[in-house]
Amino acid sequence: MTQPNTLTIAQARDALRKGELTAVELTEACLKAIDAADALNAFVHKTPELALERARAADARLAAGAAPSMCGIPVGIKDLFCTEGVASQAASHILNGFRPEYESTVSAQLRDAGAVMLGKLNMDEFAMGSSNETSTYGDAVNPWKVDDRRLTPGGSSGGSAAAVAADLCLGATGTDTGGSIRQPAAFTGTVGIKPTYGRCSRWGIVAFASSLDQAGPMTRTVRDAAIMLEAMCGHDPMDSTSADLPVPDFEAALGAGVKGRKIGIPREYRMEGMPSEIEKLWADGADMLRDAGAEIVDISLPHTKYALPTYYVIAPAEASSNLARYDGVRYGHRAKLAQGDGITEMYEKTRAEGFGPEVQRRVMIGTYVLSAGFYDAYYNRARKVRTLIKRDFDTVFADGVDAILTPATPSAAFGLGEMVDADPVQMYLNDVFTVTVNLAGLPGIAVPAGLDRQGLPLGLQLIGRPWDEAGLLNTAQVLEEAAGFVSKPAKWW
Amino acid sequence: MSRIDTETARKVAKLARIAVPEDQLPALAGELSNILTFMEQLGEVDVDGVEPMTSVTPMRLKRRDDTVTAGSMPDRILSNAPDAREGFFAVPKVVE
Lengths: 493, 96
Fold this sequence. Notes:
The complex is a heterodimer.
Chain A: H1 9-18, H2 23-35, E1 43-46, H3 48-64, E2 74-78, H4 105-112, E3 116-121, H5 158-165, E4 171-176, H6 182-188, E5 191-194, E6 214-219, H7 222-232, E7 262-266, H8 276-291, E8 295-299, H9 307-322, H10 343-354, H11 357-370, H12 375-398, E9 403-407, H13 424-428, H14 435-439, E10 444-451, E11 457-464, H15 469-483
Parallel strand pairs in A: 2-3, 2-4, 7-8, 7-9
Antiparallel strand pairs in A: 1-3, 4-6, 5-6, 5-10, 9-11, 10-11
Helix pairs in contact in A: 2-3, 5-6, 7-15, 9-11, 9-12
Chain B: H1 6-15, H2 25-39, H3 74-78, E1 84-85, E2 88-89
Antiparallel strand pairs in B: 1-2
Helix pairs in contact in B: 1-2
């Protein structure tokens, strides 16, 4: 039989329901795969006892009948989610030793649906990064490899992407503030969806930029993304921005086809110096949707080029406020103090020791753009440009466009360490196609669509109307089927 | 445009409550300047009469009843504190 850990969520669900497989067997297969994959550094806190306990409970529930789809499905949880009694440190030294007394809403919903948590997944520190190289746990490594180089799985949800691609778990939670689900999904040949802002509760997820952060699933297929997303969504009174809207049956919406649907191709995403392979992949994707009956139209999103600078004002501004809570008083690390040090020295030393360089940089940029004299010039101006960026999308959707097709990333996965000497702004360019979606609060999904000439996966992104995850997943599945991406990384770890 | 000098970098680090050694301030100033230069493209955009975004989805924040829903768990709240004594968070002397 197929190794159980390589099954999709849909396949495993069906096998569990038929009694061909138990949740304990499935969980044990994943735990074994995890223990053999330390070279990937994807799981940074393993919870095997908890997993087996939940698997046994899932088996009992399955035996009783009428268990939800996620019942007995082993998943990994990004370290950004607070999990009760289990280390949750946002991959930061400043949260060393933090064991929350509570469970995030999203991970609680998965738990209550019967999903089995295998452990916590590596990520960039406080989700700030595009390569998983800012983590206090060290780099996560992409299971895809074409030469001697170890490649990045992308970031910030790098551990989630690596774990799903390497069959260590059947699905994983990610979070996406500027592309942190979609870029790692593209780099690892997996599927990642960031839902509409407000679909998933942010309660219990360590905050980075609260107006942009959204959780979402990372899976091996679009169908799995639909199944897992549904379990993660829903209104939560603990998050005032959580939407009080019914959650549709996303899986049931699949298979409707794209006949007559209008797909926009934004001309401003044709960046100068874009690799020809990315351009071809994009054109091929448009052809696939056209062949499936969609109408392909050229559209314009005129403020696209201002999305990255807007993001890099707003996200650090919000981060500098959110990260003010790490002061060495209530949780995590506190610096050793010298004789005569007062509370200010405690704050300054704790934060200097606890935050890595990229987090310090962003907190200080945020502090600067919010400071007296610069607030209007930077922060308020960025918020106005954000209004214009959203208006661009509103106009296109009002003109009848159902979804927008773009590349997911400007390149395939790069080597770990290759960007070390680059200007931070060079790293920020990874988010060029994804960041607009967060600024406009829209749903976006990355779907694996092909391999580059080295043999590394490349992804396409589809952007949907607000709250139309169902339609977006349906279109994404058409693209997934047409692209027929079936490659898996050859096991070297 | 607005290049950040060492003095400004020192002030920003102070406001952010992050100790930056004196000899690292010039490098920090350079990095912050580069990032700000990148942001200055926003100056090209005509934003006259545009409202700054406060909420990305056009919905009114939910109100809740003004009632106590949780509490009476000081031990759990203090359980992660680096220094907790007698039911309080302990910090170095604040007032001389």
